[in-house]
Amino acid sequence: MTALTQRTGRAAIGLLGLLLAAGYTAAGLGLPLGSADMPGPGLFPLVVGPLLALVALGLLREGWAMRDDGTPLDLPAGEEARRVVLVLAALTLHFVAMPWIGHLISASLLATAVIRLLRGGWAASAVAGVALAVAAQFLFVRLLQVPLPRGELGYWLGM
Amino acid sequence: MGALEGLIFGLSVAVQPQNLMAALAGALAGTAIGVLPGLGPVAGVALVLPLTFAFDPTTGLIMMAGIFYGSMYGGSTTAILMNIPGESASVVTAIDGYKLTKKGRAGAVLAIVAVGSFVGATLAIVGVLVAAPVLASVALLFGPAEFFALTAGGLLVLSRISGGSFAAAGFSCLLGVALGTVGQEAVTGQNRYTFGVLELTEGIGLVPVVVGLYGIAEILNLVETSLRRPELVKVRFRELFPRRDEWARAVPPWLRGTGVGFFFGLIPGPAATLSSFASYRLEQAVSRHRAEIGHGAIEGAAGPETANNAAATSALVPLLSLGLPFTPIGALMISAMMVQGVQPGPLLVQQHPDIFWGLIASLYIGNVMLLVLNLPLVGVWVSLLRIPVWFFVPMLLIVASIGAYSVHNSMLDLWVLLGAGLVGYAFNKCRVPLAPLVVGLILGPEVEKHLREGLFLSQGDPFYFLEGPIAPAVWGVALLVAVVGALRRRGRPEPAVADG
């Protein structure tokens, strides 16, 4: 486990929140405010933005004033961190690839990669991954009639 | 239609074959979701939401409700047998329940908890039958001032009682409210925060946010921590009969748990989780066997499990009578109604009595099904934990992606899913509650609507929002909870986050 503590995490979220609130309020300034009896679409964001900044400042203050009792942030490290990052990377690539290669192939690759990561063995992972994706495709597309992206490759292959 | 006539009408709706099947499927799926780690009741209901659009609204809502209370049953099974709470409302059940398992009373405590869940839900249904139509008829008199007080005041209360610090819960809540302003604004059609992205004009979808926050974040946690297989416990059918003294000891906590749960279901907040903690504390304070609580007492498991089922049921009162969801599951049910063209609110009981009474009656039927099916099948449920993580994780990732995509057939929703997953993972690590974000996202637009309507009606007079007896009373209660909560917590450690 890393040495980061709850205090650091709270302050980091506060800081990011403050930046977000500033950006949100600034972007909301361009919206029509209307009048008191005919409020426009800009009024509510102008209330929410500063309130968001206020609570983000509260989080920053907590991070600043919190007694650092060493409670760890419980972030993954080493092999655990590697697994989390690789699963996130696989999911991201799944979303990037889906419009091009379609859901079936993309989900097969995602499942193969994740099973390989958690269990090992490329061949067995590929079999299990493809089986899982085909089962999901059958259940959702065939049985439940959920339309999923076929992708340009899917159209080209007639899948 | 009176309460009794309503219930009879509701039963006639609930026993229609498709609704019975929906209740059964929901209850079974919910139990599985409750048993399995990595997919709590909120993510489970969110994943099913797009599938319910294929059914009529009553059937879809019955299935969603079945998943919710099925997960309450399932969550307690692994908490008692293996000290692994399947969802957050069963965390306290594990304390005494697991100790009773170690003493060889696993079957008895499972039976007491199952009957207690049934008692809690059944008594709470009677309360819902009485309270919901009355509140709905009173709510017909509400104007923008009252609804503004209920929604904005509700968010204030939620931020105070969701656990974590007030700043953390408030930040989560306001982040949800801010996300709710993205998209085409309802009155003037003005695009807000869409940055030229066409798909954003429809706003940030509830389903990808909820599945990301609760599902993806929990999957990442699973990948990180639990590749170990838990040791499974066997329970024989003949062991499922408690002794006479155990039945006798269970009755008072059942009744107290029902009262606590019913109350928590009516107020804003993660009712199921909060009520189970409150019931445990109540048993520690008033039970005749309080000295044993924490060391394996029937009361420590019977009270909380009864309470969380009663709370899951009574949370339908504000949902059905006011159209206001104060929990993430409630937000999903409201969302399901709106997608199907059903307007939630005080008129629901008059305009859609089949939904209103059918849903309430199905709770009763679903609880009977769970009582009958769950105990004999306890071995089957526990064996679900044999499913290896390497199979479970990719399956959940695929189902989560399909669930998020299929609401609007939008690739943007997949990126929202991923973003929400990262936010949920970070919030879990930093003890920032997730429930206020979800409720803020769905109630934020309501707060804005009533604020603007009120200002329009009063020609810009802000004191309009404090007129009449109801709005000032609601604000008074909300501020009291906020201030008293702040004073009570001074100098104490931060309370645990309750996200159920």
UniProtKB/TrEMBL annotation, chain B:
Keywords: Membrane, Transmembrane, Transmembrane helix. It comes from Caldovatus sediminis. PANTHER family: TRICARBOXYLIC TRANSPORT PROTEIN (PTHR35342:SF5). The chain crosses the membrane at residues 20-49, 61-85, 106-132, 138-158, 165-183, 203-223, 253-272, 315-334, 355-375, 387-407, 463-487. The keyword Transmembrane helix applies. The keyword Transmembrane applies. Pfam families: TctA. Residues 20-438 form the DUF112 domain. This is DUF112 domain-containing protein. InterPro entries: DUF112_TM.
